[in-house]
Amino acid sequence: MLPTSLTQPLRRLWTLESFAYSLRVFIALAGVMALCWYLDDMGKLIPLFLGIIASALAETDDTWQGRLQALLVTLVCFAVAAVSVELTFAHPVIFAVGLGVSSFGMTMLGAVGQRYATIATATLILAIYTMISLEQHGGVALGELWREPLLLVSGAAWYGAISVVWCALFSRHPLKLSLAHVFRELGVYLRLKSALFEPLRGMDIEQQRLALAQQNGRVVAALNQSKEMIFRRLEGQRGGRKLNRYLRLYFIAQDIHERASSSHYPYGALAEAFFHHDILFRAQRLLDQQGRACKALGRALLLDRPFDHGPSAQALEDFNASLHNLHAQGRDEWRDLLRSLSALADNLATLEDKLAGVDNPDARADHEDSSLFDRSPRGLRDVAERLQAHVSLASPVFRHALRLSATLVVGYGLLHWIHPTQGYWILLTSVFVCRPNFGATRRFLRQRIQGTVLGLVAGWALITLFPTEPIQALIAVAAGVAFFATRAHHYTLATAAITLMVLCCFNQVGDGFGLIWPRLFDTLLGAAIAGLAVLVILPDWQGRGLHRQAAATLEASAAYLRAILDQYARGKRDDLAYRLARRNAHNADAALSTTLGNVLLEPGHFRKDADVGLRFLVHSHTLLSYLSALGAHRGAAGAAGDDNTAVTAAADDVAETLARVARQLAAGETVESHQDTLTRHAGLLEASAAEEACDERRLLQSQLALISRQLVALSEAAGRLSTQASRE
Fold first, then answer.
1. Which residue spans traverse the membrane (predicted)?
2. How large is the C-alpha radius of gyration of the chain?
């Protein structure tokens, strides 16, 4: 048994998302390094290392059987790519045509699915690695066509074998990491939400809501990742008890998200009415404690420790006591506000019950629908249909494929024109830098150049200070591991690490110092070509399509509202149709937030819609919060009230108005205000809510009133977006 002082740090390392990935890479690189030293043949080091890197870049999450199948496909693709490069390397015209066609085709595979995109991108990278390897050896020697492809594919197969074995041994660990990430992001969301309850007059609510909308995008991304990981493990098998437990934890996280994103009343009115009371402080503390509880839950899940939500349970008791005190005062002017606070209390109490139930997620009712929506292609026909749907200049994937293939062909022509030393690094830089939109390309271009300069300086210093080959070999392995540990979140450091690894590897077989200036020159040239390509070849300015993404957000919200109203009419059921409508609404909200982030990185002329878009995002996320509150309080069938046709008609009219605004915005037409109609609906619903004795019906009516009033502001923001879009 290891001492506690040693096991605790190891357990904490095990909870890091990049640790297992980096450890696999370390085993692969160290094994190859040791083999080359043992055989006294360092000439094989670089192609073996490059094969390992390409294979690690091609890795996707899956079961061990699925990963084995993906590995076999990847190795075939790698072998075909490497041999094709070898056969055409000495024929520049044929090579250029093949480079353009293959890069276009492999990029288009991104339209089929993420797995296809990952393998295709890694194959393209390996093809360029083959070019680099061949250039190092001065071309293709007669009778040795097999050498470089065999070494590259062998390195890839070695890492792939480690990956498959690892997946078989630790198949559930990625699920734990993913679900822990979901609960951490939920914790951040809840703590941001708690700031809205701070009773301050004149607080910038819009800025708080913007931060919430941006964090909601991170929560949605984490939920989507977990869902895909669970689905891949459920696919083709019944699923064991542990896998079903993770599935139920995912559904609990979805329920918490719906309740966390709910809003029951304008926060400014609550702060004004209860400024001299402690109820909002209690609500703020409760949400903060529940956020901390979500974070603690994620950590407990990773460390297999008991989860304690005692502080949040105590905060709920304190909040209920404060609310009871306000009810006891019996002030008529507080009646509607207190009913909204009671609905908030019910919502947060249910959220607390969800947290309490994570220790026994199997208690979720067996009759509930546990199916997941499968977005993967179903056969070759589905693959062909997806590809065909993107063969259009309107498709971002098609435009990016044309842009990237043109970038590589231009780079190839340029390196033949000026004959730079180690010129194929130009193509590699272009592949990593050229992204589907200007904002992402600009970010990666800057980070690539900064990381390359940092890596070259560090490499020059280290190979000068440590001229012995064994130490440089250790540095190369450590740098390769650092690349994979940092590439997801710290691309500058990752680029520096991979540059350092390349210098140390080349210094094992030649002169690493001679690579410093060519590497810098090629990086600058490749980055410049990619940057110009994004600017001039079918530029995909996100600002120009902002109104369409905003319309998609409203359309998804309208579908979510209709799904909620159907549940109020028929009774609560967390079936696939309802969960899909809810997830689509949140996905659209997250996509709008991501689009706006990209718009803010674009040149000034294309960024002019950003302020209007940010205001629209605030209003649309507020609308989604009101919808989430409706969804969170679904109860018995008939809550809409069969005898209250006016409320039912108003609800249908609100949903239709939302869909109509979405259609007008998508088409770039003049968006009708609907202010009079919506204000009338809001007044009718508020009057009905004031007289309603049934809490569930009252909440439906009051939330629909909030949605109606929110639609007025949302229609105005949509109108400004549509007007600016029509001027393009």
1. 21-39, 68-87, 93-112, 119-138, 150-170, 448-465, 493-510, 516-538
2. 29
